[in-house]
Structures are given as C-alpha cells and as structure tokens.
Amino acid sequence: MDAPFVYVVKFWVHPNGAATIMHWLDSKHSAEVVAQPGFRSLRRVKLDEKSADGWDAYMMIYGLESREALMRYFESPAPKQYAQERKPFEHHLRTDRAWGEIDFRIG
C-alpha cells in the first residue's frame, strides 16, 4: 500500500450477521468508499483474534492521498448514507476507527 495517510476501521461481526455484512461490504460499500476523491486503495484483513464473546475481527485499511481527503470524505454525505445502510445489521456489527499519517516505512 503506497499512500501517505491511512484510515483504519477495525470491526467485529457476530456470526449470525456475517453473511449479510460481508455481502454489503463486498458488493457495495467497499467500492463506493474507495471511489471517493482522495482514496487510493483498500485492504481488508481477517484477524486471527476473536472478541471475548466470539465475534470475528476484521480490519479495513484505506490508503489516502492526504488527511484533507479524509476530512472531505467525513464532511460529505457519504458517511451518513453508509450509517443508514448499516442500520439493519447494527446489532451484529461493532466498529472502531482511527487514522493517521504514515511516519515510517520499510520497503
């Protein structure tokens, strides 16, 4: 991933909601987010860890051209739209978000 800035979404999925959530991510959401101005790439990682209550853990790592690109995304209508789209399966999904500038790189 060659981007100077990243947006990381770590999320946990309840086994009963996994199929619906992953379908939404793979068929709609992921491509729409990466198509936003300033987004360069996306990697999803299925983490080996599970939550204490058995939910599967994942991490989405978005590469962006700048902090400003992410702030423009946050201020756009897109996050509100995605929040509405998530509502039907909110009780099967927990998220934690972080972002920052790449400050060290090897390779």
The shape, in one word, is: globular
CATH class categorisation: Alpha Beta
What is the level-2 CATH architecture name?
2-Layer Sandwich
**Given the helix and strand composition, which structural class is it?**
alpha+beta
The largest sheet, given as strand count, sense and whether it forms a barrel, is:
4 strands, antiparallel
Gyration radius (Cα, Å) is 14 Å
Helicity level, as a percent range? 25-40%
Distance between the termini: 10 Å
Q: State the domain count.
A: 1
Enumerate how many helices there are, as a single number: 3
Query: What's the β-strand tally?
Result: 4
Instruction: Give the rounded overall mean pLDDT.
Output: 96
Would you identify the regions where 5 or more consecutive residues have pLDDT less than 50?
none
**String of helices and strands:** EHEEHHE
Give, in spatial order, the strands making up the sheet with the most strands.
Answer: 2-3-1-4
What proportion strand? Answer: 35-45%
CATH topology: Alpha-Beta Plaits
In terms of topology, how is this protein built?
Blueprint: E1 5-13, H1 18-34, E2 39-50, E3 56-64, H2 67-75, H3 78-86, E4 93-101
Antiparallel strand pairs: 1-3, 1-4, 2-3
Structure keywords:
3 helices, 36% strand, alpha+beta, Alpha-Beta Plaits, four-stranded antiparallel beta sheet, globular, 107 residues
